[in-house]
Every structure is written in structure tokens, then in C-alpha cells.
């Protein structure tokens, strides 16, 4: 094992007593508790951690946070594996395994580097151009492209972890636990209001963790600890570390993802949720989200060993790691001088290349006094890199306007470069909340302008370009008080103030794209403004040349900002480059809107517990246990599990259905009809309502009698059907289709509540309250007679009537209605007796040779009689007349829902699609449902399509195949011979008939 | 996600509700007195403003009551909610002119 060659003396935020072993690319390394994968690798001298997306260029660690565009790794293996994890965010644990991505055969020797040599064939817009080739080309190249350009691999095994979700409400949500956020949480927490403080890092402290300043005379890390202790003592404050607020939606609804147990390692954490998704409704929101450092773009700026200056500070002060010996800081502003000073404090060699013409001020003075060499008005024009290490820099002086270099090239030995182009406030969430942004000419960045929500978000700290900790804390305190006050709490404490002694900054030079000895985009060097997706300043020039000059076009053409980092470090530099090329100001170009999530979410976190058994709830009837034992094969009808058929022995579905259908007509069968929608209607105006809901007349329906009805929408189209029975003077029992139950219930409620609120009607869904066994067939009465006291003779219990009584000693409502055309009794009992009823009926029925049957047989049996199924033989464009059901439409009623639409031109025109039967020339051929019917077969489409098959079965009782179809002018086509082209290229001749294939019985 | 005040239950998450389209479309008293165009208007034509919209919602996973919402379709700002049959709350001129 190698020594941690870059590890410093001090502990920083690490637990030096606990060392941790981990594997990266099959080598074992050692780090400490508190390290990220990135800090531990850098401590071990490892800069090269992966290959780039498109050109397979060697890449290193670029940042120390969630903005990382480069150091993406494949974390863990097999079922535990996760692609595209940022090494800068992954905390190490004993036994961690990570691999670099996008390298083959290895990170050090990668054959994909040929992409880089052949970069002329992979220019910007490559994917779009490829898609514009003939589609067949894409099919050919897809494999190559997918292998060559890409990121990590998704796991192929099920995720062994589970994920949690929670809903939370609070008075004040503080996003970001840096100096401003901590102070905001304390200020609002002190008022007693409910506070949530969320921070994406493992520890609170934000930027202060990357610093070594004194606050009120004590080291800033100790100051953080005292503040957090204060917050922990408040029972009204919830502290969520490792929690990224990823989305900011309407009415202060925010989504945050908490990484609960990942840092313990996957094998330990299987017993607690890996992540938890928080859905937070906050009365007030304080954003203290900080800022992200802006890079400078120069020739070959993507080499490993080049990172943000602030990241170097983080590695030194938080992770006790100085990832180089010969360091250079390249900057256009004062903040990066801190990095140089920190390096010098650790006895590292450091010089500063300042692109400003004559840098001066307090920061410069303190660097000079430490003996740090400053090369003013200069830039890096080339980078020497070999075998995983930065070797030297080429440095030249800038011309007056900064667009060219002049003078002699000098070589500077170097193994670490810190770059800084200033800071960008992290206003992603503000933009997500529909807040408007403005470009600030002083700070050269976008700032929050107009918030849009009713309870507008309050900003504090460096997310609004306040750079010094002292001011950040003051703003945080004020924001916390303001939020608490707005939430209705008394907040008038003064801020006791802090002293930090930070030095003033001089202005930065507004220059980010730095020249080299040849024009940008030419020669061998590349200026990468976008490291994640390998997009260069040259690509921006190309995009503009080819006409893709608007921001939105540029983004898609060059793929800038479209990586998993969403361009956190690249968007503004792309905009700046575009503005220079087009000679427009940045605000004139416009800005793209930030979209959630701020950082990627795992699918597991989004799904939570809603997977596997809990993905969709299953509705089961009371008879379900019996069906299970009888080898029922189920069909999903809505959420219901309905037996489709009962398989005897090794019976196929076809054989079972043929047997069940024959048996129902020979002796009898029993169907579980419990899923049918049932609505109890009571009140003196119920009859009036039924007259409006159904097409037929309900005035003369006597108590104890049933009637079938079609329900139409106002367009005159059928949307449900069912039998409704009059139970008492003002009491009705309505049934609906299984799938339409909720729809019909809502339909009735909406009319009652909004249009006819004066009606006295009470509608109650009783679908779940009744279990229903439908006994059907010639022996139905004989079976039932053995179990009931209800007289079953024709006179006392005629067709379409209902009787109350006992069935198998269970109180029951028995309806004599039929969907099979056979003598049928639908026996309704309270749901808890459903299984007992079913068992008794089957027991008694065995003597008469009756069988259980499922929905598939039910479909065949009803089709044999020409009964329709709403939603199968109708599709929302079918009127009762289209089905030949004129008989059910009352001519006398003044009005019912949908009636007026019968007179619409289109509804009343002749030649509409109408329901007919079809008989195939080959009686054993079963037409596919959905197939088209044409008059004349042609060798290729288009053919004149007359309509389609809605139902099609092999009918054992008709001894042949039968089908129903909706055909243009169908009623007038009876007797015609038409054709049905089949998918396999054959076709079937069919004769148009009535849709009734068997006659007789109920 | 919107926060909607059900006139019966108070403030609840949008996920408890279902939007039902434009509000205050009365069913004609005598549909057969309407000509084809008038009936077509009732059936098919709906407002689609960028700005203030009067719409019908139902608290479907709650009290199952229908009610009306005045919502700005551009900003998603909800000006008021009220029960069916209640007078329509008046908006200030500023609110009405706020298409954004
Ligand atoms: Zn409600």
C-alpha cells in the first residue's frame, strides 16, 4: 500500500484515529474517516480518475463538491453498483470499491483515446447530424457510438436497498448550512418556530469548513461546532445533513433527498433506508445556498492536476491534503490569493499568475509579504502533462485587450494548478421557484431578481454575492428573523455580531476565455469550457458559424450544460464566450431556466416504497382465497384481480374457456361478479335523476323490478351501462361496469353537487359492501332452490326482478338478470359472507355438474348472444343507435343527458360506424381484435378502411368463430363479403351478419 | 405542487384534488331550444386564457366535494376558492390584469 504522500500534519475535519481502506481501480488505498473518495485519492497522489465522455481524454478531480464535472466513478459492484457518482461527494467507508468510468481497458491506457485523434469526425452537433442521416445509418453506428461515448453502467441486478419517503411541514426551511444558513436557523429557531436546516454535505459549515480564519478569536471550525451545538439543543429545529434540496416548486413545496446510510457502506446499510425523499411544505424559505467558483478557460485546461482554487482550499483545510508540491494559482480576482496563502502556510511551493494588468490591494500585499511570486498580466498558454501527472506550464504575457498573448514563452514546473474566475451565486432553486434572474455587471454573474411566489423566498449570504463570512452571518440572522416574523413569530433579537478580520478585495478582471499562441479552436490544444460533455470554445465558434447562435440552440448543439452536473461550472463561461463571438452583452443573450433536480436523484429515491408488491394495490373479492385454490388465472380489471379462467390440470386457456362456455349452457356455471360497480341511490328525486342519467324511461319501474340502462355523456356517446333495480319507494340499487364504477360515481356526484344541488338524492358507493355470485345456466334454479326459501317459479320471480331472502342461511338480494342469455341469478350478500356463499353454491352445484367460470368465458358467452361490453365494443364515439339499440332510447322523454346531441349533424348522419357481426370464411379462424376491415384487398396500404373488429372469439356453442365489428354503414352491409388483412400478410374473407350468434332463453 | 384551500377542509396538497376544467358552464334549461352552434358552444368551447381562469376542482381524495377556483394560469397563483352557488369573489383590477 502506498503512503498518503499528500497528507498534511493537521487533523482538519478528519478522524485521524480511524483509518479506512478502500479500492479504486483494483488498487487498495488508505484514507481517514471524514474523507471523500476524492480527498483520499488526492492524499494518495492520484489525480487521474477517469476518461472524458467524448474524446476519452484523461481527467482528474476538478472540484470538492456537487458541481464536479469530471470525477465520476462507478461505485461498488454487482447489485450495489451505482454509475456516475461524484468522487467529491462519496464518503469513504471500510471496503469501498470504486472504478473509473468510460475507460477501456483501463484508465491509464484507454483505446477510446482514438476518439480524440479522430475528433474531426466527432464535432459539435455530431449527434444531431447523425440523426439526420438516413435512419439505417444510425442503426449501424449506434453500437459504436454507445460504446465509445458514455458514462457508467446501470446495475443489472435488483437493488437490495430500500428507500423511504416522508412529508414534512415547517415554518422556516433554511437551505444551506454555511455561515448564513446556520445563523438564519438560529435566529428563526430562537423564536420557537419549526425550523428545518438542510445541507448537502456530511457536515454543516459550508465554506467555513474550507477556511482557516478566526471568528471572534476562535478557529472557524470550532465556531461552527458551537453554533451547531446550539441548534441541536433546540427541539423545534430539525437538522438534516447529507440532504440536498433538489427541487423548489409552487407554494413553497420543496423536495429534498437525504442520503441516510450510504456513508456506512452498502452491506451495513441494508437494514435502514439508503435514502429518504423529503417532501417539504414550508411557510417560509431561506436560501443560503452559497456560490460555486467559476473556472478560467485556457489551452488544455482539462488536464488532471488542474482544479478550482477554492477546491484546493477545501482539500487543505477540511481534508488535510495538499495535492501537489509545485503549485500555481491562475486567477482574475483576489479570492484565489487565499488558496496561495493556504498552500504557503503548508510549506508548499506556490506562484500566482494573475491575468490582471497590475494587481494591487490588501490581498496582493499579503501574498507579496509571504514571498509568493506573482506573474501579473500573464496567462497559461499550454500544459505539459504525461503519465497521469501535470509536469509544467507554458506562460506568456497578455496583450493590452487580453485577447492575445505577446512576448516570450516561459516554462514553469508545476504539478497542481488552482484556477479562479470569481464566484457564481447558486441561484438554481430560486430560478426553479419561477423567480426572475438578472445579470449583475459588478459581480459578473446572475443574481436573484424578482421572486414570484406569494411567500417569497429570502436570500442570504454568497448566493446573493455577499462574499465575506461576517456579512453572510449578518444577512443570515436578518433572513432568519424576517422568515420567523412572516410565519407569525416574534423575532426581534439583535445579532451579537462577529469579528473575522477578512481583507477587502480589489475588482476582478472580466476575462475568462484566455488566449494562447494560436487562435482558439485551431491547432492541437483545446479550450474546454464544459468538461462533463467535452465541449470546447471551438465548438461554440462552430455552432455560431452553422447558425445555432441562440442560447437554447447553442446548448443543444454543443451539449453544454446537459451533463449530469447541469453545467454548474460551465454555463456562464459558455454564455460569455457566445457573447464575445456575437458581440452582444450576456443579458441580451438571455439565460436558460434552471430545472429540477439540482443534483441527480436516484430512481430508488423517487420510487421509495412504491415498488414490487406495493407498486399497485390489488383489489381482491371475498371469494379470492377459493379462486386461488381452484387454480384461477387472473386478469387485471382496473385494480381488481378477476379470475379469467379456472385451469383444470394442464388445460390451456383456450381449452378451459371452451369447456367453461359449453358447461354453462349445458348445466350451469358460477361467476364471481363482486367487482361490478354498485351504487346505492336514495331520496325522493332519485327517479328524476335516473331519467336524466339513462336513455330509457324509469317512471313505471315497480318496486322489486330491474331495468337495463345505457348512460351517455352530453355528446350522446355511451360511457357506461348496467342494471338498476328499485328496492323501495325512493331507493334504487344501480350497477355499473367494473372499470367504470368510480367514473359513474363521480358523474352522478358532479351533477348533484354543481347543476342540481336542490335534488334530494344520496348516492353511496357500495361496491365493496356486496359480494356477488352469478349463477347461470339451465340448472341454475335447481341449484338455488336447494339453498333458498325464495320461490323461484316464473310467476313469483320473473325475469328482470329482485327478491330478498335467505340463500345458504345468509341474508341476500337475488336479482334475476342475465349476461349470458341463460337463466341467471345474481346473488348479492354482505361482503363478509361472500366466501361462505360461494363455497355453498359450489358444494351444492357439484351435484348438478356446474363449474366456476371466469371473465374470458363470460366475454364469449355474452358475445354469443350479441350483448355489448362498454369500452370494448364501444370507444366513446358510439351512440345507442350505432349499436342498433334504438329500442332503449325513450322517444317520450323531453330531456336526458346526451339527448340533444342526437340531432347534431355528425351524430345523426347516415353511414356512421355501426355494430355488426362477422362470420369468417374459415369457421375455425379467430380474427384478431383490433384488425381492420376493408372492402377490397390491395397489395399495400392505403386500403379503404371500413372499421375494426371489437370482439372476436371461438364460440363452442356456435361451433365456430364469431366476431363483432364497428363498420361504416354497417347495418346496410349485412350479407356483404368483406376482407380482414392479418398482420402476417394473409387475409380472411368475412360475411357481415347480425351480432347475435345464438338465440333463446333469458 | 399547488396548495389549494378546499372550502370545506381547508388547505391541502394539490395531489388530493382533481381539476375538472372551466367553471360556471351552466347546462341549458331546454337543450332542444338551442341551435347547433349554441349547443356546440356548450359542448366543446372552453376558455383557455393566459391569466385569470375560473375553474372547477374536486377534492377527490378528501371530502369529494366540487368547488370553484380562481387561478392565474400563467403564474399558478390562486386568488380564491368558493363553493358552488356562492357568489363569485371579486378580484381587484390589479389581480385581473395580471397575466404575467
Ligand atoms: Zn375537502
Please describe the structure with a list of short key phrases separated by commas or semicolons.
heterodimer; A: 1002 residues; alpha+beta; Ubiquitin-like (UB roll); FAD/NAD(P)-binding domain; seven-stranded mixed sheet; six-stranded mixed sheet; 24 helices; 49 strands; 22% helix; B: 100 residues; Folate-binding fold; four-stranded antiparallel sheet; two-stranded antiparallel ribbon; 6 strands; 32% strand; globular; binds zinc ion
Would you give an account of this structure?
The complex is a heterodimer of chains A (1002) and B (100). With 1002 residues, chain A is of the alpha+beta class. Chain A has 7 domains: 156 residues, Ubiquitin-like (UB roll) (Roll), CATH 3.10.20; 189 residues, FAD/NAD(P)-binding domain (3-Layer(bba) Sandwich); 127 residues, FAD/NAD(P)-binding domain (3-Layer(bba) Sandwich), CATH 3.50.50; 60 residues; 155 residues, Gyrase A, domain 2; 91 residues, 2-Layer Sandwich (Alpha-Beta Plaits), CATH 3.30.70; 94 residues, Aminomethyltransferase beta-barrel domains (Elongation Factor Tu (Ef-tu), domain 3), CATH 2.40.30. In chain A, 22% of the residues lie in helices and 28% in strands. Chain A is built from 24 helices and 49 strands. In chain A, strands 8, 9, 12, 13, 14, 15 and 28 form a 7-stranded mixed sheet that branches. In chain A, strands 40-41-42-39-33-43 form a 6-stranded mixed sheet. In chain A, helix 5 packs parallel to helix 6 and helix 12 crosses helix 14. The longest helix of chain A has 18 residues. Chain A is elongated and about 115 Å long. The N and C termini of chain A lie far apart (87 Å). Chain B is of the alpha+beta class and 100 residues long. Chain B has a single domain, classed as Folate-binding fold (2-Layer Sandwich), CATH 3.30.2270.10. Chain B is built from 2 helices and 6 strands; from the N terminus they run βββαβββα. Chain B has a 4-stranded antiparallel sheet, with no helix packed on it. A two-stranded antiparallel sheet of chain B has the order 1-2. Chain B is globular, with a radius of gyration of 15 Å. The two termini of chain B are 19 Å apart. The mean pLDDT of chain B is 93. Chains A and B meet through helix 20 of A and helix 1 of B. The site of zinc ion has 7 residues of chain B, from loops.
